[in-house]
Fold Tripeptidyl-peptidase 2.
Amino acid sequence: MASSTSTNNDLTFPDAGLLPKEETGAAAFLSQYPHFDGRGVVVAILDTGVDPGGAGLQVTSDGKPKIIDMIDCSGSGDVDTSTTVEALPPAESGSPDSIAKLNIKGLTGRTLHLNTAWPNPSGKWHIGVKRAVELYPNGLKSRVAKEMKKEWTLKHREVEAGLQREVTAFKASTGTGAMTRDEMEDMADREARASQLEEIAKGYDDAGPLYDVVVWFDGSAWQAAVDVREDGDLRSWEPMTDFHVKRDWRTFNEKLDNLNFAVNIYEEGNICSFVVDAGSHGTHVAGITAAYHPECPSRNGLAPGAQIVSLKIGDSRLGSMETGVAFVRALREAVRLKVDMLNVSYGEATAVTGSGRVVELIEEIVHKHGIIYVGSASNNGPALSTVGAPGGTGTATIAAGAYLTPSMMEAGYSLRRPFAAVNFTWSSVGPAYDGAQGPTIMAPGGAITSVPTWTLQRGMLMNGTSMAAPNACGSLALVLSALKAQGLPYSPHLLRRAVTATAKTLPSLHPLVQGHGMVQVGPALDYVMTSAATPYVRIPLKVSVAGIKGNSCRGVYLREAGESRVSRDFKVSVEALFHEKAASHEKVNFEARVALSLSEGAAEGGGGTKGQGPVDPAGWVTIPSYFMLMNNGRGFNITVDGSRLPHGLHFCKVLGHDVAHPELGPFFEVPITVVKPLELAKPPPTPLDLGVYALSSGQVERNFLVPPPGATWMDVTLSDRRAVHAVAPTSASDQIAPAEGKDPGLATNSHTTGNGGQVIIVALQTVQLLPQTPFRDAEFEKYVALAPGQKETFSILVEAGVTVEIALAQYAISEGSTTVGITVEFRGLSPRGNSQDIVLHGGHGCVHVPVEAQVHDEEIAPICKLDRWQTKLTPDSSSIKALDPDRDVLPDGKQIYQLLLEYKFTTETGGDEVIPRAMLLNGVLYESPLESQFFMAFDANKKYLGCGDAWPGKVKCPKGENVLRYSVRHDDLSLLQGLKGLVVVIERALKEGKEVSVPDFATREEAMTRKKRGGNGASRMLRRGCATSFFLAEPAFDKMPKGVKAGDLLTGSLVLEKAKGKEQPQSRRPRGFRVSYVVPPPPPEAPKGPSKPTAQDKRTEETKLEEKVRDVKVQHLGGLTDSTAFESLFKKLLDDYPAHIPLHQARLRFLDEENSRNERLPDVVSAANSVIDLVDRQALASHFGVKVDENDPEAMKVRGDMEEKKAALVDALARKARALIDRRGGGEKKEGGGVGQHVKVRPDAEKQRSDEAGEKERDEEDRNGGLQGVLGHEARKSGVHGADVAAVVAELMKWDSLDQDKYARLLLDRDAGYGRWGLVLKVLNKLLGDAGNSSGIDKKELYERRLKVFEHLGWTHLIENERKWRVIDCPTSYSLF
């Protein structure tokens, strides 16, 4: 049936839902007080960085600059500009006066033309280089790479087509007959060009823009210039200085990346910091907080009059992950710049709450410096205790959860049937580990607002608690704006108290989800204004509860069965936190008469309370009625009796009201959370049915269970109970933006499927809280698309005896409803003992593995594989230094120091991916006592390979030696001193198919003999309650990965359960059990056969002594570097040993030394001839023409002597050929010098041979017209190198294959001389592709040679990229931290 349409000329759009303000009362407040719109308030955005070109982020509502300052606190934009140069003399500038009169050489190799009007009293120019891709956000990298590849491909195809035409024409010119040798070689060269072009296209990696950076001091300030056009011409560049001075920003390349940047200069010009955003997140947050759109006020942020300070904490090198360095620097800058508020939409799960370096600094800036901290609660829900640090776990912070309103559904998400407001499914939930409530307030958690210009759009939909935080922050900025405009006093604590006391309770949400409710602007302002004169209202109180395990907590949290099974007493301590400058009389006079009461209770889940409502807190919590509080703190006792509670979640709060001012709400609160789990003393015989739940959008159902003894995993089955109707399938519709921080990876709007019903998105999350462990390490989370009748089973790790929450929720923006049943079946098959980790020590032969099944009958069939290899490293060097006072001195004046550790490690194959792990430090950020940890990896040429911090990732390394540099920072020198020996582990994943299998045996006897008696080995059926055992034996050493050493650790997993058939659902413990193998020393090499008889040494003792003395003299000669000393000693030895080949080899090597050979080339030829003449080639050929009896000692001795002579011969021939080529100008020239003499072994013969060779060379030059350099094809027909070169090479090829790295220089020089650039390129690419090549040519020279090849071939589309990679791959120093 066709739908009807109508035309409405007065169409409007519901802008209010794009950036919600009505729910918090902000819209009404702004309407009533338009001048209290954030004016006078400065908000620091600690995020990925804010784009100054973002829509609405240029000016405030009263015309002031929107962004006051932009600072990259991460260091990811730092450019090393410590290299200083002076202007080039005109003769060296390479530019006529008409181009520029002031030129310097940049680190890219470009000549930079500077503006002569730029003042620089010192004449010193600091220079640096920065690769653009290191600055690009991840989303921009892929787009730019795609655009550049598209343009490059067009040029490359033109070159390929031209080459193919050339090949066709060449073939036509040779006719149909047989090709000559020259023609065959030329054809091979053209084929090599074609094949290399094809290979280049396959592996092409565009270096991207590479910018020269120039910094100088103009007499009053540091200035910077950036060669964004990459043409070297900076004459028209307007110098940039620190952003706060002129608020100047530029765009790198409007056509290519459209990425805006600012600069700051540090360390007396030695560091130029590019300030760019690491992602669109920070600009979006700033837009929500304070964007100002005069042309469309409905699109304004919450506080359009507020100003912004952008403090970038998202490290571009880590894909925008925050670091300790960035956070500490940002907090320091917030204090220095005297900002009023912080918005921090970042957070991580933590192992402990309320402690750590960053957390302590946050407490300090709030309580000591009066800065208001608003943060996100995190996006890890819907399960309990998923709030993240620092926002959701701190006492000084205001943490926002994310709310979804009908206006947002309509305008932002385009839902077809908007429904009642709900929290976003992934919005994190309290309590914190220590009992604190978790989220402080709720705020709208989504918006369509400003994003960086590099995204090529003005606005974007993002959602998350990252969006709720700036909504709340902007709302509080309105309150603060009103207070500052009227000169009213306030404190962060008073604002926090005002927000919590006036927040609007959301009746559909649990207190652990919503905190105190939706922030309300007007009431919060009224609260502050009416309470400002009240004594002590601005003083924060610290509430501490003596925890069950003796630790100090901020609330009562009973989660485990043993904790909630009995009645327990708790000591609550309350202490006033006076400012350090508070007067003594304030402390003396502080007294408060407090009335204690209980809040209403709240309950959820577990079946026992379903439909019954919460249990009256008075029935399970006992408190005193009154409490007198004074300075230095006091305490009182409460009793929590969980034994009176049914299964499920129970919550209430102890409220302390100042009896003098009850209208101000609670003076302090003590949250109490009790989880009463269902205890399973023994596993049910059938899967446990947790019930059937009717779900709607955003609805959450919780169950709490205690896994029975012996359980190691559980199978959770979700079954959609809706009726199945067979209809024709339809396509999915309305894909919408995923949640920021949570992406289900599915279409979020419901759609119909072939079974006739809507697909509904549900979230399944399970969490156990383990001691000193962040929840993410014991969490399972899955978003599932369920169709009617569909069933899904998930195997999930569990710890027996520890309460597990099973949370089921319909995704908040999945329309419609469904009915879902949940069943749980606990399983258990595990090694017995105190630890489930199995360690097999090399040299022990085997390890005994007892196994038990306590839950169900299980069929075991062990499979053990080791798939990771760990090598321990100790530092090769360590140093400690004081860091830059401009960035790394704390607000209290403490100097921060850096411990720099350097490690060297080797990778056996190119492309190996390694993970550097500092086991002591990794895995903690906010709770870490250290300021930061950060590593950077480099190859042997100092090329940057990758980096990591608290959660290290993979770094791809080339073959050979690599360097790891590890930075640890703190203000305590003694702490850093204690870490100087920090052990780092290099972890490699063994490639698929290369894993090490660990054999299993049923008995020790089988393990010892390596023979299985039964066909099934350790496989068997294990009945419930029974135990068995088997043995894991050491794997064969020859199966170990190449390069493994004694003491290395191989790790993997042991899977015990027998695999099911394809028709049966697989149920196994996820990831199996960890197995570690300590690698033993390698076994002694087995003899390859019976020892060979040795020839009798018939020399006299006198002869042996003389030859030993001779050999020592020659060895000493070979170690000399001074020419005069060498020649003097050589002459003396030559008189004594004129026919000793090693002596002549020593001189040949000396003369042919790479850095000084070019001026010794005639002497190199002569020295090579001396060696060649001493080798009887006819006798050599005759010897190698017959097979030698390996059992004949005399024959084998002769063979050894002949091998040495052959090696001397081929070395001399190769060196002579290169020298002859270079003498004629056909090879690559190098500067150098040296002296030498022609050695006449047989004076008469040598003179005759030398004269003949000289005459022959002159004849060759005459025949070729005195050719110099590289000639074309026609000239090559006459022989560029001459017949002597061809003869030498031909002679060399008789004795050895030239397809070896040691002949690479010869091949390169020979083919370059012939102009066979395709063959030259083939050799160069082979050497560059093998980091472990033995050619002796370093990477820098290989790049230089390849660049010249591209220039000769005219492949201009490759030349610039090659020049850039030469700079990137061979930097002059390590990248900065």
The first strand starts at residue 42 and ends at 47. The radius of gyration is 39 Å.
